[in-house]
Design a protein that fits this description.
Length: about 260
Amino acid sequence: MKVGILAGGLGSRLAEETVVKPKPMVEVGGRPILWHIMMHYSTYGFKEFAVALGYKGEYIKRYMADYCSLASDLRVSLKTGQVEPHGNGQRQSEDWVIDLIDTGQATNTGGRIKRLQPYLGNETFMLTWGDGVSNVNLAELLKFHRGHGRIATVTAVRPPARFGRLEIEDSRVTHFDEKPLEGEAWINGAFFILEPRVFDYIDGDSTQFEREPLESLAQDGELMAYQHHGFWQCMDTIRDKVRLESLWDTGDAPWKIWK
């Protein structure tokens, strides 16, 4: 089963980083968040990816093209231009196959998905955004999707509170946390599983997937929600990046399910 990843947005709220690179290439623990997302999928055996590029897409192309070389000791012939990895110095590299598709800078999310159609094939596929990590169990997500027989499954999450929650008694803070608030509504956490018929709900480049397609799928009874109670975090702001970095640096990154 192939995995589509949308990696073409501007990331304007991370302008400190995205002025020079696309948001999916902003690093956590020395690796782009896109790499973390792909590691999550590959841990469950999903190793074929179609990545929709847009803003500064060439940055992602260069990273992927250089990935094997950067992960190996090399022998370089300046005369011939030949580059070979040393057999005994090559470090383990991920067993991924990746289609990197330029879907245009101005294309909206639905349009990017539509442009990936030739690379995802006429079969069930997974889809997510290139800026969020989670420990969602993808095997259980797929089981849930296959069990209901509808066109689309979205992973529903309760995000951590944007600001710390205070419990106060007589002006004294008695409790503080930033955990998900049980009273808050479920939101779209991405990590979709979709049937090919979903492309019929997308008109073209200007279509925002989160609007007309998902609204119409819901109205038609074709959108189901897999409720994820575990960790989920998008990286929209520097504050989000700092939080993810802190979790990684302390060895307490819930999304790191690989060895």
